[in-house]
Amino acid sequence: MLESFYATHDYLVSHVDMSSYRSLLDEIDWSERLIAITGGRGIGKTDLLLHHAYRQRQEHPEQAREILYIDFNNFYFTEHSLYQFAEEFVATGGKTLLLDQLFKIPNWQKELRDCYFHFTGLQIVFVASPLMNVDAPTSEISHIVKVYNLRGYSLREYINQQPQVPHPLPAYSLDDILANHEQIAKEILTYVRPLNYMQEYIRHGYYPYREVNRDFSETLLKTMNMSIEVDILLNNQIEVAYLARIRQLLYCLLSELPCSLNVSDLATRIDTSRATVMNYIKFLKDARMINLLYKDDRSFPKKPTKVYMQNPNLCYALPSRQVSQKDIAETFFYTSLHGSQKINADENATFLVNHKTKMDVFATTPKRDIFRYTAIADIEIGHNKCIPLWLFGFLY
Q1: Where are the domains of the chain?
Q2: Looking at residue 383, what DSSP letter applies?
Q3: Closest CA to 389 of 206, 213, 201
Q4: Of the four, 56, 116, 264, 364, which is 20 to 30 A from 176 by CA?
Q5: CA quadruple 310, 313, 317, 322: dihedral positive or negative?
Q6: What is the pLDDT along the chain (396 residues), one digit of tens a residue?
Q7: In CATH, which superfamily holds the domain spanning 2-149?
């Protein structure tokens, strides 16, 4: 039985595109016994598992049979449990399982927990939708799992994929950028001109797709629909009858974002209650399709101050919509910082970062304030507290 899985594993690892290598691979503590890789649909979680397997095979070819990638779409698991599979795998010398589509098996949390405590020499790495809530207090594995979040490509990662870039460009901390942005920008510009890639990135650079234009749009559309139909409906056990309302809500948001949220209007448009709209909004946020911006003292289930698409590529999901440069600039900034910094709304600036730093985005006239900066869209090098917008794409 194991041989067919090894054959599939060998084929996939041999054909994985290592040019789309993600820096998260170097940040994960691979000594942990239970690791979850979370992230939105379509951003490369499966490839990250295969990249890890490829790297292990290159570094330790004699241990090739100790690591195995498993996709639970395989019909074998309709009659066999993960525990049974792990038992046989360990008995033949296996040490690491890489699991994909785990949510498709019943009681997957209990299965992981049983494997963790019964097979103490086994490491399990699995990918998960954020809606699976693997580290929630109610989760059966929250106390034993180490969770890592995979985001879509940053501008830096996108540029590093281009064949003409001489060597990989490093990431910088937010503190470094705020304090030394002129020097950092000049150093980067000796190798590449990021503004030359900015328009490509905001349209089709966040996702690790190789297709562009028509093919990219179709792939993105399929990804968005799968996020709703599988991640949202299945993980939240929502009846298919409500699919049309969630899709309609997303269409309404795509037509307007970024914007303040008129819950009553949305409830009327999709023919449901205000409470249901807010629940759907939460599902779309957890599926990494939108971002919610709150004031520093507020959070869900309160109404957000503003709603953004989760990344700039999604702003172009409706080809008929004209997106302003300011909207794109704000979305790019929010996406670049979200996940590593605390982002809030501010009454006197576009964003409040980490409770203290005020950041205007796209503004052309900086304000006089010791904690206030301006991110400007179309400059290569900044000065004083005016920072090129593109540089925030080098945070990861």
Answers
A1: 2-149, 153-206+321-396, 210-310
A2: B
A3: 201
A4: 364
A5: positive
A6: 799 999 999 999 999 888 778 889 999 999 999 999 999 999 999 999 999 999 999 999 999 999 999 999 999 999 999 999 999 999 999 999 999 999 999 999 999 999 999 999 999 999 999 999 899 999 999 999 999 999 999 999 999 999 888 889 999 999 999 999 999 999 999 999 999 999 999 999 999 986 655 688 899 999 999 999 999 998 888 999 999 999 999 999 999 889 999 999 999 999 999 999 999 999 999 999 999 999 998 988 889 999 999 999 999 998 888 899 999 999 999 999 998 999 999 988 999 999 999 999 976 555 666 679 999 999 999 999 999 999 999 999
A7: P-loop containing nucleotide triphosphate hydrolases (3.40.50.300)
Euclidean distance between CA atoms 317 and 210, whole angstroms: 17
Strands (E), the chain: 34-38, 67-71, 96-100, 123-128, 146-149, 290-293, 306-309, 343-344, 351-353, 357-361, 372-376, 386-388
Integer Cα distance of 367 and 382 in angstroms: 15
Domain 210-310 coded CATH 1.10.10.10: yes
Could you tell me if 375 and 362 are in contact, meaning their C-beta atoms sit under 8 angstroms apart?
Answer: yes
Asked if 270 and 252 touch (Cβ cutoff 8 Å), the reply is yes
